[in-house]
Write a structure and sequence with these properties.
globular, disordered N terminus, alpha/beta
Amino acid sequence: MTERQTLSRSASEMRWEVGANISRRSEPVKSFALSLACATVLLSSCAHYRCDPDYGGPTPRNQELLAYYDYPKENVEARVERIAERRRYFIERVEFPSTKTIFGTEDIKLDYYVQKKEGKFPTVLVLPIAGGVDFSVTSFAGYFAARGFNCCIVHNREVNLDKVRSVEELEGYFRQSVLDNRQVLDYLVRRDKVDANRLGCMGMSLGGIKTAMISAVDERIKYCVMGLAGGSIADIAVSSRERAIRDSIKAVVAEGISLEDAHAEMSEKIRTDPIKLAEYIDARNALMFIAAFDRVVPRQTGEKLWKAVGKPEVIRLFSGHYTSFLYLPCAQAESLKFFRRKFRGG
């Protein structure tokens, strides 16, 4: 090989190495650019609307409603265990028996994210999805607690909803969830660091549905965020494309009950239903997230609930039920912004 060929080869190798180095160095830049592009697309693909300016206010809660969700007011002995510590807050596992049990046998269980510093703080109930406490639930609680809020994750009662065959049993489950959450509020307002005048509630999917229920019944919940929620329960049951729900409905139909009759029975017997309770929620103090392609809690049921509440502030996501997970950072930020604005009187 001649000297000229050697030099030419060396130059070629150098160019390749330089190019490779530039490529390797640009990988973080490309990743950042891709992340920025994705974030831009997501943020630009959701639409934010204010509450209907013509909204006239909620229906006052009547005695029949309050009696149905009443329970003995007793100071129960709670078991409290500190399970984690973060820079700004502690996490405590709290358990105590319900003073009224119409569904299940286990105690009420919650994870309480409490601020370390002295003072009284706004406190938000965070209600889990059907699968229980997962990353999306704990991430909301941690996000809020790191920014000066107390948070309380109220665990679901142990039940396999897709195996519930009786409409009465389903009503019992939802009614019990309201009773449990009311008793959690009783516990929280007795804690030193809870501002009883600044209580909120939020949840996604089943958690959003339960948020609508407790917010309608208990006046202590001042503000609420209902994500991917809908109503009626009957409409969700017969139109959802979620496999577990579809299998449950197929099992009912296999017993000789028509889909129309199943829908009618649920509509008649399920009293603890977001649609039936929606009029008691103050639309001026609510925020909803509705996914355009939601087939689990179908979008039309979300729109129906939104109208029944009184067309509250809403953020519409360009996603399905599960792909809405991509909007989690946005949902956290918007929910926090909503609660901060409302708790400050804005």
